[in-house]
TrEMBL record:
Transmembrane feature ranges: none
InterPro entries documented for this protein: SET_dom, SET_dom_sf, SET_domain_protein
Protein's name according to its UniProt entry: Transcription factor
SET domain: residues covered: 1-92
Domain of life of the source: Eukaryota
CDD domains on file: SET_SMYD
Originating organism: Ganoderma sinense ZZ0214-1
């Protein structure tokens, strides 16, 4: 390392007081998880001069992302952050129950006092239920995707749900994410995608643009890229979901009219 980097490195926090090797103690205190790298079987972590100084919250308002092409890290907001407000990232899986979160954070030698951890008892119980639901929110993704597909593209029958009913569960989860201030990665995207598709299917451009815009912003925070959502947000009517349901309903309505006539 350059003298400047070395100086910055050794000025980072160290909570591993029992660790005889100072450099290892600083790595253990400050390293950010990177994951595996192409062609290598190991898990990697990195120490960053500034990003390693960002504090933890179980309700983080920002996320960091590693660009493996450039080895650059960036931090982006998950929620609007006001001037003077502290930036927080999560060091652990934030969907764990509070006791497990505190346990996972014990190696950092602090007791988390974030908004989720410092809730009074009745509110904490509700938060724990919401996080438990969020943690396993992906379990039924496949059947939900299939149900949406059937609703949008299948032949409508008497028992086919309407737009409000088909989006109820996905909206309930969006509400959970919003209430917990936790768009849990990576499950949030499935919910937003279904809501955006449903909105497109009935030609609701305003809702489709809103969901796609949020999905683009969250994807940029988590992955560094919009993953195609910007294009959907700017022209939802160009997706192959646009109007598919409305056209089917149009068919049903005219048949009903014919019967009535
Ligand atoms: Zn916390």
């Amino acid at each position: 390392m350059t003298a400047e980097s070395r100086d910055a490195f050794f000025h980072l926090a160290n909570v591993q007081v029992g660790e005889p090797f100072l450099a290892k103690a600083i790595i253990d205190t400050n390293a950010l998880f990177v994951g595996t790298l192409p062609g290598a079987p190991y898990h990697y972590a990195a120490v960053c001069k500034d990003i390693s100084r960002i504090n933890h919250s179980c309700t983080p308002n920002a996320a960091y992302h590693v660009d493996l092409r450039t080895f650059a890290f960036d931090v982006r907001a998950l929620f609007p952050i006001s001037p003077g407000e502290q930036v927080f990232i999560s060091y652990i899986d934030p969907a764990l129950p509070r006791a497990a979160r505190q346990d996972a954070l014990s190696s950092y030698a602090f007791t988390c006092a974030c908004p989720a951890c410092s809730l009074p008892k009745p509110a904490l119980a509700q938060s724990e239920v919401r996080r438990a639901l969020i943690a396993r929110a992906d379990a039924t993704a496949e059947s939900r995707n299939a149900a949406l597909e059937r609703w949008a593209r299948g032949t409508p029958t008497e028992s086919t749900p309407d737009y409000a009913s088909i989006t109820t569960v996905d909206k309930m989860y969006m509400d959970l994410f919003e209430k917990e201030r936790l768009y849990y990665e990576p499950v949030w995207e499935g919910y937003m995608a279904r809501l955006c598709k449903a909105a497109c299917a009935v030609g609701d451009g305003e809702a489709a643009r809103r969901w796609a815009g949020l999905a683009a912003a969250l994807n940029r925070a988590y992955t560094g890229e919009d993953r195609g959502w910007d294009e959907v947000a700017s022209a939802p009517e160009r997706t192959d979901w646009w109007g598919v349901r409305t056209r089917k309903l149009g068919g049903v309505r005219s048949r009903t009219n014919l019967d009535a006539g």
